[in-house]
Amino acid sequence: MKYAREFMLPLAGLPLGETVYTFDLEHPFFVLNEDEEVTEAKVHVVLVLNKHENMIELHFKAEGWIELPCDRCADLYHQEINGEQQLILKYGETYEEESDEIIVIPPDLHEFDIRHLLYEYIILMLPYRRVHLEDEEGNSGCNPEVLHRLEQMQSEPVIDPRWEALKKLNNLS
Ligand SMILES: [Zn+2]
Questions:
Q1: Running DSSP on this structure, what letter comes out for residue 121?
Q2: pTM (predicted TM-score)
Q3: CA of 125 to the centre of ligand 1 (A)
Q4: Quick one: residue 138, left, alpha or beta (phi over 0 = left, psi -120 to 50 = alpha)?
Q5: pLDDT class for 150, splitting at 50, 70, 90?
Q6: For residue 4, is pLDDT > 70?
Q7: How far, in Å, is the centroid of ligand 1 from the Cα of 19?
Q8: CA end-to-end distance (rounded Å), the chain
């Protein structure tokens, strides 16, 4: 697995102060994290790590896009990714996730795997509603054929099944 080592931060060997890492996450990264929805992706992550005597500060900044199926028309589209996340690794007795932003790690921990964290951060940056963007004139970027069909479906009268049953009863008498 190409990605396995890349996401291990060598905590023990780090000098005090700032170290900068960059990651270019593409399709295999998301598949390794069992996200089969993602077919194409290009997300650039800059991680600024700041090591102090008693803790390590991590600051992640992600920018790029992920290809996803649109919630409205089901065609694939590029969802923009843009966000930041902070994490503090605090030295303590045993490993413990204190909160989303604080993890306690034992002082003798040599390496710290950030692969799942990166994945979670990026997924959290996705909007709740995942649809094509509108163009400059405010037109939907969705597949026009699908939109047309959706409109047709909405304008067809909905027949209440209870009303239909009642009509049948009336005809019988
Ligand atoms: Zn769409």
A1: H
A2: 0.78
A3: 19
A4: left
A5: confident
A6: no
A7: 41
A8: 74
Q: How confident is the model at residue 3 (pLDDT cuts 50, 70, 90)?
A: low
HSE-up of residue 126 (Cα within 13 Å, Cβ side):
20
Q: Tokens at residue 80, please?
A: 């923009």
Residues shown for the chain: 173
Q: Residue 104's pLDDT is what?
A: 96
| Strand partners for 127 | none
The mean of the pLDDT values for the chain is 87
Q: How far is the CA of 62 from the centre of ligand 1 (A)?
A: 24
Cβ atoms of residues 45 and 60 within 8 Å: yes
Helix (H) or strand (E) holding 16: none
Locate tokens 């989303």: which residue?
100
- CA dist 48 and 18 (Å) reads 7
Q: How far is the CA of 79 from the centre of ligand 1 (A)?
A: 11
Q: How far is the CA of 27 from the centre of ligand 1 (A)?
A: 21
Q: How far is the CA of 157 from the centre of ligand 1 (A)?
A: 25
The conformation of residue 140, written as its DSSP 8-state character, comes to B
CA of 152 to the centre of ligand 1 (A): 17
State the distance from the centre of ligand 1 to the C-alpha of 144, rounded, in angstroms: 9
Q: Determine the pLDDT at residue 173.
A: 53
Task: Report how far residue 135's alpha carbon sits from residue 83's, in angstroms, rounded to the nearest whole number.
Answer: 23
